[in-house]
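User: Could you check the structure of this?
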Amino acid sequence: MSADLHRPACWHTASFGASPDTSPMELSTLGEHLGRCRGTHARWFALRCGVESVHGFVASRMVTTLVIVTLLLVVASLAS
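Assistant: Sure, the predicted structure tokens are below.
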């Protein structure tokens, strides 16, 4: 294998001599797309944020969480 790992990254554009800025039509289309995506995924995003915050809480208190879960399981098994 003779891959050149130290080759700099290349960036190519296709502006064809025009300004490389985005056009108003492209920005409008992108805004519509983001609006639709945000609307359809809003509930899942909220759920994901909640799960991530619970995960952060539990991960930072792993031993305490394991002790509480074990105690709850013991109490539930004794109550049945």
